[in-house]
Write a structure and sequence with these properties.
signal, 76 residues, 21% helix, globular, protease, hydrolase, serine-type endopeptidase activity
């Protein structure tokens, strides 16, 4: 039995309290891609995590009103 999806959802819930959902960033960064207008892909999200030793960011996709799917290596 693969427990990876379950663990991902548990981690997502743990870090959801640190989420700044709905607050737009004035910084525009496009790395190796094409810039699109805001709202063109409404299911995509920007995740930002502050840790004592560094800050990191990653992208994710909205699964439903409670879960975001992102790369497991970013969370662990």
């Amino acid at each position: 039995m693969n427990v990876t999806p379950f663990l991902l959802f548990c981690f997502a819930q743990t870090f959801a309290k640190e989420c700044y959902c709905g607050i737009g960033s004035a910084i525009k960064r496009v790395i190796g891609g094409t810039e699109v207008s805001r709202g063109k892909y409404p299911w995509m999200v920007y995740l930002y995590l502050t840790k004592p030793d560094h800050d990191s960011f990653c992208g994710g996709a909205i699964i439903n009103n409670r879960y975001i799917l992102t790369a497991a290596h970013w969370i662990v």
